[in-house]
Amino acid sequence: MKLPMSNRIQVYGIILAIAGTCLTTQVQAQPTALVIDTSSKIQERFTQSKPNKTPARRHRRAGRVQFVLPKLPDKGAPTGRRKGAAGRGNCPAVDPPLTALVPERTVSAVRGQALAATYVWGLTVSDYPTFWFYIPDLPPSTSSGEFVLQDEMGSDIYRTPITLPGKSGIVSVRLPSITAPLETNKMYHWYFKVDCNQQGASGPVFVEGWVQRVTPNPTLESQLAAATPQQQVALYAANGIWHEALTSLAKLRQVNPEDTALTTDWAELLQSAGLSEIASAPIVQCCTPKNLEAAGASQVQKDF
Length: 304
Known about the structure:
Layout: H1 5-53, E1 99-100, E2 104-107, E3 117-124, E4 130-135, E5 144-150, E6 156-163, E7 169-174, E8 187-194, E9 205-213, H2 218-226, H3 229-238, H4 242-255, H5 260-272, H6 290-293
Parallel strand pairs: 3-9
Antiparallel strand pairs: 1-4, 2-3, 4-7, 5-6, 5-8, 8-9
Helix pairs in contact: 3-4, 4-5
């Protein structure tokens, strides 16, 4: 049956409306599906890559003992030699050579000097400090050395022959109480000499440097009073007081030789002062000044 024109127009309008609705639904559905699919893939990639972007946590012990170089003294130039010259005095050329365990600082130009200056200098709070040296392998005939302490004018405060241990290692020489105590804020010049030629045909191998006694400020004194022995080592080092940092830690290692934390502290302290090459050297029992042996004081140096 043929519909009137007005009815046919209405039918065509309904068909077009239905077709438009279907087309709109299809077009809208397609982007929605793409968005869902894309976000799913991004989430999958993020989940897979996240473990690779997050590094595994490393359980590393943070350094506790770091030596801080103090400010150079206002007066005087504490220049010295931390390492003995190799091959002098018929001593064999070894690496590392005779070495003083003391901080060293090289300054290219200071106070109008054109040449570089090497300062070998350490602070102490003790009136009778302990000095530390690395002794390399020496000829069997080399059994003694000499330790000298002088005032700023070059006059002897203490001079003594030292019996060497006969093997390589780190040794200590303590200033004995038979001498006058170090005075606060004064500079003292020390030497440690080893002569491998007992006939004296050539000069000895030696190291030299300076020590200065200081008084801790009230804040540091209160911190030290409240600290454990291990914490005291770190406090001394952080405040530039070398001799007590090194000696206190050496005492702890002597009492607890198997303590790996103390071994690590020792290595960190020496490394912070530029002495990492001898950090693994053993501490050996030495050195009794010969003029104390006759007085029956051989135990003095065993107590550092």
